[in-house]
Automatic annotation (TrEMBL):
GO molecular function, one term: oxidoreductase activity
Gene Ontology terms describing biological process: monocarboxylic acid metabolic process
Domain 3-hydroxyacyl-CoA dehydrogenase C-terminal: 188-284, 494-590
Protein name as it appears in the record: 3-hydroxybutyryl-CoA dehydrogenase
The protein's annotated pathway: Lipid metabolism; butanoate metabolism
Length: 593
């Protein structure tokens, strides 16, 4: 099976097939595009001409290179055109019946040495290979959309695949400028296997009316640095496609996290499949358009507004990084800030941390020396919560321990004036349990900032069943003044971000436990295939494995879903003291400073 793979057939000239054909033609391969639809073939040629013209205009290729690539691409409406191909890549509709028919016909057409690759991301490569007369030459070659831009290619082996076939397509992927990742045969492989579980949970969250579609998407973009929110991404992928992938994943795993959320089936059956239909979770200007237009579910700015309480002074309780970051944010926005810690010394250290942060901003040209001095002048360091007597808003940022927070709120209840808003920054504890430590739970709300607070734009605004409307309105108005994006959510474990992020991280750990893929391959797959700023294991080591385990336990305890049980490997590493970067070892080892 030692072949140069210089002539390649692509069966199915939809968006993905056309993109793959473009990549191959630009890399010097002779490409035969095959589709039973003459219109699809014509569209593929037009698309290739247009995309290569854009590449010339942007200086990425020369006009001569464009002409050569176009000359290397020809189309046909019959599989017989693949007779001379050394590799055939099928990207036909995602059903066993259609794909198996293609493989059966190719068996009688291509040479015995040719490799047959399926572009599936949901179906069993092994099952498809079993239909071939030579299953050792069948494998998966999963490109990501748009194929010309996305670097990841998953090379999928079944138990029947011959190693030389894997080596040949892996080398091809590298020559195409892609990053090949070797994976085994299971629905979703690595990237989609992790991505679609997360998307499914987001759909279920929306269906439960826990948060609006806009807030879910904003939370994941701003809180995790993702290029798109999950519901907008489902619309882009196609809701029917996502449902198909999830059905295949659930059939293999029987994990409830993979059972398609009912709303996906309802939208699919109604023909509301996303951008391609002009409507899915969002409504679009036209079918195929990426422009979102207002609809009946679009929130009205007037409806969101409400009469809040005046806030001129803010108390921040705590002396850690989060507390000092929050105090800095409020002071920059013009608020008078009292930063209170358990001792004057700790409060002074926290204010000193703010001074250093402001100085860095000055040195980078982001802040003037005058603004630095004014900001620092608005902050008073105090060694007791008694200093909060006249603040309008008190924000706690102490240890993530319910008993500690309850004690602190009992003190705030005595110290703060009537009408002051009391906010907790908890990321995992029930806000109502904190609120009940006071005699005024209606004044208590969650304001979950993200670390580092000065840089991160998101604040999850968490209402309990007792939070007063004007308290909610106050916090949203404050968020606008400190230039943060508030998202509303109810008082349940994980809120939006952690409830969607940590099951995804947990599933990545399970992949490693099952020896399905390596840490490096999983991290590469999610960065290159999903557009994530960090791979799951990079992120776990940064967050801290002990923190991650604590959040996983809270989610499992709240939702009682077996799929949310913390992966044993995570528990073992925490028990061994391997907590991530802060200890020098987590999933990876780090040089000690």
């Amino acid at each position: 099976m030692d072949t140069p793979l210089s002539t390649i057939a692509v069966v199915g000239l939809g968006t993905m097939g056309t993109g793959i054909a473009e990549v191959l033609a630009l890399a010097g391969r002779e490409v035969i595009g095959i589709d039973i639809s003459e219109a699809a073939a014509r569209q593929a040629v037009t698309s290739l001409e247009a995309s290569t013209a854009r590449a010339v205009a942007r200086g990425r290729i020369t006009e001569q290179e464009r002409a050569a690539a176009l000359a290397r691409f020809r189309t046909s409406d019959t599989l017989r055109a693949a007779a001379g191909a050394e590799l055939v890549i099928e990207v036909v509709p995602e059903t066993y019946e259609i794909k198996q028919q293609v493989f059966r016909e190719l068996d009688a057409i291509v040479s015995p040495a040719a490799i047959l690759a399926t572009g599936t991301n949901a179906l069993s490569v092994t099952r498809l290979a079993a239909e071939s007369q030579r299953p050792e030459r069948v494998l998966g070659l999963h490109f990501f959309n748009p194929a010309p831009a996305m670097k990841l290619v998953e090379v999928v082996s079944s138990v029947l695949t011959a190693p030389p076939a894997v080596e040949a397509v892996t080398q091809l992927a590298r020559e195409l400028g892609k990053e090949p990742v070797a994976v085994g045969d299971r629905p979703g492989f690595v990237a989609d296997g992790l991505l679609f579980g997360y998307l499914n949970q987001a759909a279920a969250m929306y269906e439960a009316n826990y948060a609006s579609r806009e807030d879910i998407d904003a939370a994941m973009k701003l809180g995790c640095g993702l290029p798109m929110g999950p519901l907008a991404l489902l619309d882009l992928i196609g809701i029917d496609t996502a449902r198909t992938v999830l059905e295949a994943m659930y059939a293999a795993s029987h994990d409830r996290l993979h059972a398609p959320a009912p709303v996906l089936g309802q939208l699919s059956e109604a023909g509301l499949t996303g951008r391609k239909a002009g409507r899915g979770f969002y409504t679009y200007e036209a079918p195929g358009s990426q422009t979102v237009v207002p609809d009946a579910l679009t929130p009205s700015p007037e409806a969101a507004a409400g009469e809040g309480r005046p806030v001129g002074s803010v108390g921040v309780a705590g002396s850690g990084t989060m507390a000092s970051g929050i105090a800095e944010v409020f002071a920059k926005a013009g608020y008078t800030v009292v930063l209170a810690a358990r001792s004057q010394e700790k409060a002074d250290v926290a204010k000193g941390r703010i001074a250093k942060s402001l100085e860095r901003s000055v040195s980078k040209g982001r802040l003037t020396a005058e603004a630095r001095d004014e900001t620092l002048g608005r902050i008073t360091a105090a060694g007791s919560l008694d200093a909060f007597a006249e603040v309008d808003l008190a924000v706690e940022a102490v240890a993530e321990d319910l008993e500690i927070k309850q004690q602190l709120f009992a003190t705030l209840d005595k110290v703060c004036r009537p009408g002051a808003v009391l906010a907790t920054t908890t990321s995992s504890l029930p806000v109502i349990a904190v609120a009940r430590a006071t005699a005024r739970p209606e004044d208590v709300i969650g304001m979950h900032f993200f670390n580092p607070a000065p840089a991160m734009k998101l604040v999850e605004v968490v209402r309990t069943v007792l939070t007063a409307d004007d308290v909610h309105a106050t916090v949203r108005a404050v968020c606008a003044k400190i230039r943060k994006h508030p998202v509303d959510c109810g008082d349940r474990a994980g809120f939006i971000v952690n409830a969607l992020l940590f099951p995804y991280l947990n599933n990545a750990i399970k992949m490693v436990e099952e020896h399905y893929a390596s840490l490096d391959d999983i991290d590469a797959a999610m960065k290159l295939g999903g557009g994530y700023p960090m791979g799951p294991f990079e992120l776990l080591d940064v967050v801290g494995l002990d923190v991650s385990l604590a959040i996983e336990k809270v989610l499992h305890r709240e939702f009682r879903d077996p799929g949310l049980a913390p992966a044993p490997l995570l528990e073992h590493l925490v028990a061994a003291g391997c907590l991530g970067r802060k200890t020098g070892r987590g999933f990876r080892e780090y040089a000690r400073r």
